[in-house]
Amino acid sequence: MSSPEIASLSWGHMKVKGCSSSYKDCKVWPGGSRAWDWRETGTDHHPGVQPADLEEVLQKGVATLVIGRGMNEALQVPSSTVDFVRQRGVELIVLQTEKAITEYNNLVGQGAKVGGIFHSTC
């Protein structure tokens, strides 16, 4: 099962290939995607992405996880979250969202077992 490509990105809007709905923020993994609702884990720009935000994607058995920090990189990724991912033996790539989606789609094109979480605004 392959990871879906991100078909388009604009401020506050992302479209995942093969999915009829669009997302403001999203999670993607081999075989699926869904909205990333920060309210589920109490995430905010500071302190940023929490391990609980990543658990669902990591459970899909990804080898690489890409995090998009927003168009202006306002979303933080604390060192505790980085450590959480690396302790599971998963490669972590953290970039500004446009760059993150480019990298994610490149990995998808290579057939990598990749997942991602992406923030589409600030």
From TrEMBL:
Which CDD domains is this protein grouped with? Answer: Mth938
> Gene3D superfamilies from the entry?
MTH938-like
Q: Which SUPFAM superfamilies match?
A: MTH938-like
- Keyword Cytoplasm in the entry? The reply is yes
| CC per GO annotation | cytoplasm
Location comes to:
Cytoplasm
**Record keywords, A-Z:** Cytoplasm
What GO biological process terms does the UniProt entry carry, in alphabetical order?
A: positive regulation of fat cell differentiation
Cytoplasm as a keyword? Answer: yes
Return the InterPro entries for the record: AAMDC (IPR034096), MTH938-like_sf (IPR036748), NDUFAF3/AAMDC (IPR007523)
- Name the Pfam families for this protein: DUF498 (PF04430)
Q: Which domain of life is it from?
A: Eukaryota
Task: Supply the PANTHER family for this chain.
Answer: MTH938 DOMAIN-CONTAINING PROTEIN
Entry similarity comment: Belongs to the AAMDC family.
Protein name in the entry: Mth938 domain-containing protein
Q: What gene name does this entry carry?
A: aamdc
